Amino acid sequence: MQDLRFSGIDSIIILLAYAVIMVIIGWLAGRGENIGKSVSKYYLAGRNLGIITLFFTLYATQYSGNTIIGYAPQAYREGFSWIQSVPMLTIVIGVYLLYAPRLYTIAKKAKFITPTDWVRYRFQSKQVTILAIILMLWGIGNFFLEQIVAIGTAVSGLTGGTIPYGVAVIGFIIVMLTYEWLGGMKAVATTDVLQGSILLIGVIVMLIGGITLSSGGATSISENIAAIDQERIGVPDLFTNINWISMIVLAGFGAALYPQAIQRIYSTKSERTFKKSLARLAWMPPITVGVVFILGIIAIQLYPGLSVTESEEIIGLLANDIADLNLFYYWMMIIFFGAIVGAIVSTADSVLLSFSSIISHDVYGKYINSSASEKRKIKVGKLTGIVLVGLILWIAWNPPGTLYQIFVLKLEFLIQLVPVFILGLYWKRLSSGPVFWGMLIGAIVAAGMTIAGYETVFGIHGGLYGLTINIIICVVGSLMIPMNQEKRKKAEILTAIKTKTNNDLST
Amino acid sequence: MKEPIRKPWIWVIMGLLIIFNAPWYLPEGSIEPMIFGIPYWALISLLLSLLLSAYLSWVCLTQWNVIEEEEANNEEEGD
């Protein structure tokens, strides 16, 4: 028996088949649609995503490869307290409910393309818009970096180096760009259906395999863990509990405001479709991260005493042992690897599409060449996508110390958009000046704390301190600025959902 | 029209489900009793998590109806 079960030709065949299928789906999605000539067709699939597609695209976009590869080691190291990963991803639906019903309605009426469209429409301020663009692009760049590194590590690790890191990264980038260019958001969302469903099946088969391996049942697992390390099974200390709640809040707000997630709100066919998809999505955290959590716990018993670096390989170790059970499990695990790669690619493609849309529509179309045709804007988006890929590749290969540290700020920056998206939708007094300063100072606080090495203080994340200051500035500042009748009326029209007024995008 | 943000009780219940998800109110380090081999506190957290999923799913389906009828009418008219 080999050490690495997947280093042979089988995994290469599966990955190649996977790549070919994704390109074919992209081609089919874009065929005859003329998607290269309409920004709403290219970036939002013509605002026509149905329940199944929307559900899977939200699922595959929110749950990246890291949800599987990274969360299991976390459960291994932290023990039972990592059960927090389940509500952490469920709460995203709750945050959607705070703002998405109204944003969807306004977006449909005003025909938004990018998340920035809302910011420009509501605050009508260049300063606020540009700062929001910077924060979003930063978040997106960070996401993309993570996914690229993950693809390389996953594929080279899982094939035992048969496919080297660099080949994996470049190969999958070419595949991703190809299907994205062929079919835009429709291709991205349709490939998500494939990627999401394989991921779901893979996770469940892995759970069954893991339980078979650990044959002793839950009682013996818990008893063994209690014998190995009490801390990983007992009620956590106060610090961990505070950190637990802080994580839920940070991830909930941050993930619900991912630019690529906001664009899915715009792509929805109807409110009915949207709410049905979200209602189903609310059950995915227990089914996905809940299962991954159990796998991490099983691993405590199966592979005791791993160091931090060694524990990162848990999913690989488990998959190897499960594949050894019999031929069925062997092939299921090969497909599961395809699913992990798919989960990474499905997050990366959405992020890249969102990046291209912001650059082409908001930066190029609004500030550089406002008379550009839609076809030209899409072309600019595609080309700058390549530039981003190049830049991120460079960073992925040579992480430049502090810059890398700053770059890791993702959720911390994205949650600074909370006042813009949530408060701005409901509170008419919210003015652009305080919003700008709140967002800027909030981001500086979050970044400053991270760079200074204080990612959390009293278990609470720097991003949340930044957000608190941000909200205080927004609220106090807005209350201090007198509001005339005209301004109030304008804000009322811009945030209304029942008016028949034609709220066309105005700059 | 039903817009979730207009109903404070939705957010109070959600907040409670989150705050009690972390077992800060239980004695630190305690494990027993084990139920189905799972420490009691983890089971409480898990149940609260499932309750959160069920609750949010229910809120989506029943407490959110902003322009659904308008859209349905438009569709009938062939808009």
Q: What is the spatial order of strands in the main beta sheet of chain A?
A: 1-2
Chain-averaged pLDDT of chain B:
86
Low-confidence stretches of chain B: none
Total number of distinct structural domains of chain A: 1
Whole-number mean pLDDT of chain A = 82
> How helical, in percent, are the residues of chain B?
55-70%
Oligomeric state of the chains in view: heterodimer
Shape of chain B: elongated
Strand order of the largest sheet of chain B: 1-2
The helicity of chain A comes to over 70%
- Parts with pLDDT < 50 across at least 5 consecutive residues of chain A: 499-507
Task: Spell out the helices and strands of chain A N to C.
Answer: HHHHHHHHHHHHHHHHHHHHHHEEHH
Helix and strand composition category of chain A = mainly alpha
Q: Let me know the largest β-sheet of chain B.
A: 2 strands, antiparallel
CATH architecture of chain A: Up-down Bundle
